[in-house]
Structure formats: structure tokens, C-alpha cells
Design a protein that fits this description.
Helix content is about 40%, strand content about 20%. The protein is α+β, with helices and mostly antiparallel strands and about 375 residues long.
Length: about 375
């Protein structure tokens, strides 16, 4: 069984960190730091372990913030290599990767009053491990100064630094502090994304796509507009970025986003649909079909999904979209597509007896197929 990811912070990695710090600063009490760092560590998850280690560093490093930073920075390895993706192994000359995460958390906890010093430190730290979480309070407090600096970093020779520009400003970074100002006004970040959209590394371009996907949660039309503009001069890289950026909009059947990707909702339609049964026994499934057509005089791509409106405990229904078929319809073509779906015990859903509905989504436009009665759930659950 794989070891939990939080175990990147264990006795061995903590002793390695302590040894590196003592090698730079001989008065650093490595044994005391290690003992305190290990105390209660097993009860903490990954992020809490890193913050715990940062607090321990505060008690064992010099009180002067700039001197503490100097010591931590001196333990770092040479910047990590970058091909199209980061190369996480270093040459053994110093610390890099997750073991340096407590250093950026140290900046997060104790460096907010030292903007220039802390930003410079995070720029160096992110060359060994991302500072995308630590940088966010600085962006929130010093927005104008931070955005000016990040515009410069967007042209840095290091891909890790360029990625930090996009990842650090994401409005809804998972596990990170939300940037409410950018949720409300995402246009503030668009000049940075414009600089990075054609970056030479997939690592940076994927961050740009994820940033746009964050924006789509609150401003779907804006995301579609930006992606459409970028595809006015299409490249394979831009198309891959845009597809990834619009994934939430596509799942939500956002018509402007589907149009950006070439899915024509005007000329495609469902001409016939069939649900083969109106009663489904829990543990079996349902079969269905749809005939779709292209009324235009040219070939068009199609995206066909199906939607099940599941009955909830309170009797209401909630939709769940499932992928079905992708392809192309030639001019005037009609195509019949068959589908099936199992309704059986799974850990991620609780089923309830009663009426459910089935519909199809063709290029974002929903067409009802019919309804079915789900029975036999109570016997299986009991």
C-alpha cells in the first residue's frame, strides 16, 4: 500500500532539513528542532505539517527575518531543471521539492510586513518548489505593487517563476486562499495571462488554462470571450489550452463556450429519442437511443451527452451529466446513437426510489427523452 503523501514530512526529511540548516548556521540546534518538529507530527495532514515545521523554524532560526531568510535560502539546491514539465530531481547540492515547503510557509506566516524581501525570497523558492500558496496574502495586501512585479516575472527566463505568475493569482486555487478581488474583477489578471498563453512550456500553459477555468466558475461568458479571441489565431497549443480552460463551461453546456470549440447548436438537432423501459430495478440499468441530424450544408462536429435527473431524499431531482459520444456529422447526415447506463451501488452516490428523468445534450442543447421509475433500492440497502 502506498505511503500517505503527508509522509514527505517524516523523520528522515526533517533530519535532512535540520542538517542543511546547521551546515549553514552552526548555532542552529538541529537535535532540538528535530525533536520539536516530530512532536505531534503524526496527527497532522500535509499542509498542517508544513505550517508546523515553519513555526518550529521560527523558534530555532535567528529572530531577524532577513537573517533567517538568508540561512534558509543558502540551503537550497540549484534551480530545478525544466523541459516541457519540471524535473523534480536535483543534483544533491541542496534542498528542493516538498522539503522546502515550510520555507515558503515561513514567509507566509512571518514575512507579510516585508513585501520586497519576501517577494524576492518566494521568487527564488519557487525555482525549487512552488510558492503559489504563500504568495497569495501578499497579492491581496499589496495588489498594485504585486501585479507590477508579476508582470515582470511573466517574462522571466525560469518557467517555474512564469508559472507562479499564473498559478499564484488564480482566483480559486484549490487548497489555497481565495482571492476575492480577482473573483469579482478577473480582468485584472488577464494581461498576465495574455503574456503567458503561448509560453514555451506545457507546465505554464496548463496553469493559464486552470486560471481561466477558475474564472469560468464566476464569469463563464468572459472566459468564452477570451478563449474565442485567442483562437482567432489558432495553434495546436492554443487549442489544447482552450479546451482545458473551457472544461467546466462545456460540462455546464455553456453555449458560447461550445461555439468557441466549433459545436454548432443552430443546425444540429435531436430528431428522435427512445428510452427502452419505464421501470428500472436497482442493480440493473437502462438502455436508450437518439437520432441526431445536421441540417447545414457542411460537416460539423458534435458533442452528445446524456443527463440523468436523479431523485433526491426530499423528492426533488438533481441532474448529472455523463459523456456519451463525440464525432462529426457530414452535411445533411442523420446518425443513430445507442447508449446504456448501469444503476447499481456506488460509493459516490445514494439512490432513492421513485421517478427519474433522462435527457440528451447535443452541442449544449437539452432534449428530454423520458422518465423511468427506479425500484428495489430499499431491499438492497436493507
Amino acid at each position: 500500500m502506498a505511503e500517505p503523501f503527508k509522509e514527505v514530512f517524516n523523520q528522515a526529511s526533517i533530519e535532512r532539513m535540520a542538517s542543511a540548516l546547521a551546515g549553514v548556521h552552526p548555532s542552529f540546534l538541529a537535535s532540538g528542532f528535530t525533536a520539536e518538529a516530530l512532536d505531534g507530527l503524526s496527527e497532522l495532514e500535509l499542509k498542517e505539517r508544513s505550517l508546523h515545521l515553519a513555526r518550529c523554524l521560527r523558534r530555532y532560526l535567528p529572530e531577524d527575518y532577513s537573517e533567517a531568510l538568508r540561512i534558509m535560502m543558502a540551503t537550497l539546491s540549484a534551480p530545478l531543471a525544466m523541459e516541457d514539465e519540471p524535473v523534480w530531481e536535483n543534483d544533491g547540492s541542496g534542498l528542493s521539492g516538498f522539503v522546502t515547503m515550510p520555507f515558503s510557509d515561513y514567509v507566509l506566516l512571518y514575512g507579510l510586513e516585508k513585501f520586497e524581501l519576501s517577494m524576492a525570497a518566494m521568487k527564488e523558492m519557487t525555482r525549487r518548489f512552488s510558492a503559489e500558496f504563500a504568495i497569495r496574502p501578499f497579492i491581496e495586501r499589496y495588489e498594485e505593487e504585486a501585479m507590477t512585479l508579476l508582470a515582470e516575472w511573466a517574462e522571466d527566463e525560469c518557467a517555474h517563476v512564469r508559472r507562479l505568475v499564473s498559478e499564484g493569482t488564480r482566483p480559486r486555487l484549490p487548497w489555497g486562499q481565495r482571492l476575492k478581488g480577482f473573483i469579482e474583477a478577473p480582468d485584472k489578471c488577464l494581461p498576465l495571462l495574455e503574456k503567458l498563453k503561448d509560453d514555451e512550456t506545457e507546465y505554464v500553459r496548463r496553469s493559464v488554462a486552470n486560471h481561466l477555468n477558475d474564472i469560468s466558475k464566476d464569469h463563464p461568458d468572459l472566459t468564452a470571450e477570451v478563449c474565442g479571441r485567442w483562437l482567432e489565431q489558432p495553434t495546436e497549443r492554443r487549442l489544447r489550452l482552450v479546451r482545458h480552460a473551457l472544461r467546466s463551461n462545456v460540462k455546464a453546456a455553456h453555449l458560447p463556450s461550445l461555439a468557441v470549440l466549433g459545436y454548432d447548436a443552430e443546425h444540429t438537432r435531436v430528431v428522435r429519442s427512445v428510452l427502452d423501459t419505464d421501470r428500472v430495478v436497482y442493480g440493473s440499468g437502462l438502455t436508450f437511443s437518439a437520432e441526431i441530424s445536421n441540417a447545414s450544408e457542411k460537416a460539423v462536429p458534435f458533442m452528445l451527452d446524456f443527463v440523468i435527473y436523479h431523485r433526491k431524499a426530499n423528492g426533488t431531482q438533481a441532474p448529472k451529466v455523463f459523456k456519451w459520444r463525440r464525432g462529426e456529422l457530414s452535411a445533411g447526415q442523420t446518425l443513430r446513437v445507442s447508449g446504456k447506463h448501469s444503476i447499481r451501488p456506488i460509493t459516490t452516490r445514494r439512490y432513492y426510489e421513485g421517478e427519474h428523468r433522462l435527457a440528451v445534450l447535443l452541442n449544449g442543447v437539452e432534449t428530454p427523452i423520458g422518465s423511468f421509475e427506479l425500484v428495489g433500492v430499499e431491499e438492497v440497502v436493507a
